[in-house]
Amino acid sequence: MVGGGVVGAACALALSRLGLDVALVEARRPDAWSPGSPDLRVYAFAPDNASLLEDLGVWGHVLEARAQPYRSMRVWDAAGGGELAFDADALGRPELGWIVEHGLLVDVLWQAIARSNVRLLCPAAVEALQQDDAGVELRLDDGTRVAATVAIAADGAQSAVRRLAGIDVSVHDYAQRGLVAYVQTDLPHQATAWQRFLPTGPLAFLPCADGSSSIVWTLPEDEAERVLVLDDQAFGAVLTRAFDARLGEVAPRSRRVAFPLRRQLADTHARGRVLVLGDAAHVVHPLAGQGVNLGLRDVSSLVAWVGKARGSRQDWRSGEKLERWARGRRSEAAVAAHAFDAINRFFSNDALLPTALRGPLLGLAGRLPPLSRGLWRKAAGL
């Protein structure tokens, strides 16, 4: 396993629990999470992936440390029309999901790795890769050679292992940036995830455990540059208007960071005995908050595949088996990525026809419980 982020660490733990001999290669030991230094990178964590972490024995530690359940979602368009709403009570759930910091997830997973049988090679980076029908050999930057029957790359969007394995990617640049920060609002967030579609891109307010909100604001690159350098008072005023003062006046509570947005898909999730997972395999638009959720579903799918094959005394590492798993994951990632792309294109413009249709379509979906329930179940992985 190469890459010790959320997806890589979870995969290493899960495969180790199946009785496999797992080595985890990571370039840098992550910083310890601190409740006094909130991580700007947060996730809208889905119930199916909470179940995965519960099976790994770490989800309880996440909840004890800091995780904000959200019980409602509200989605509407700036041009007016109806609103799409999801409510936990109507769906028979105690919550729809949780807002969790990236750093906290990595911290608890690494603590679990320290208690596991996973062999940790850190700091170390992969410099070369060779493979044949029998297995893979990785050469690390300190000269160490690691032999394995299968190598799994979860080393991010710029994956070195993916490149060394000869797996190409297709990339679409959105010419947008995702601006993230913590803010305080006059009105309470109501344990609700809010998203307003603007012609420039979606704006999300995600509820946090301390009463603040984490924002993810999609903006064209030039507009993102302008907003980043505003002083706090001006930024709060611009953000309040963009959010239509839905929660009253907004004031920043943290620094602001903006990252480029793109769609990136690996041509395959397997090349020989090398597999790719998470951002190494797919990067999607953040508007639906599905990035880490898709990555962890790669993990759940692989673990189920391995467990089923071992249970029937089949070799899950055979080329045919790996290719079959990879085709399924590639298909799901491509469908999700292009669906988010279509939503972003439809809502992030001021053309007359889309503008006239967006609000009524959201309202129609909100008035059809089977449709809204199906949309939520898809996002929740249920």
Task: Give a description of the structure.
- The chain has a domain at about 5-70 and about 100-170 and about 260-355: FAD/NAD(P)-binding domain, CATH 3.50.50.
- The protein has helices spanning about 5-15, 45-55, 60-65, 100-115, 160-165, 220-230, 230-240, 290-310, 320-345, 350-365, 370-380; strands at about 25, 40-45, 70, 70-75, 85, 95-100, 120, 125-130, 135-140, 145-150, 150-155, 170-185, 190-200, 200-205, 215-220, 250, 255-265, 270, 275, 280-285.
- Helix 1 packs parallel to helix 4 and helix 1 packs parallel to helix 8 (about 290-310).
- It is about 35% helix and about 30% strand.
- The protein is globular, with a radius of gyration of 21 Å.
- The strands form five sheets. Strands 4, 5, 12, 13, 14, 15, 16, 17 and 20 form a nine-stranded mixed beta sheet that branches. Strands 2-6-3 form a three-stranded antiparallel beta sheet. Strands 8-9-10 form a three-stranded antiparallel beta sheet.
- With about 375 residues, it is of the alpha+beta class.
Give the second-level CATH assignment, the architecture of the domain at 6-70 and 98-171 and 262-356. 3-Layer(bba) Sandwich
* Main structural class: alpha+beta
What proportion of the residues is helical, as a percent range? 25-40%
The beta-strand count equals: 20
In this structure, how is the largest beta sheet organized? 9 strands, mixed
Please tell me what the overall shape is: globular
Features:
single chain, alpha+beta, three-stranded antiparallel β-sheet, 20 strands, 37% helix, 28% strand
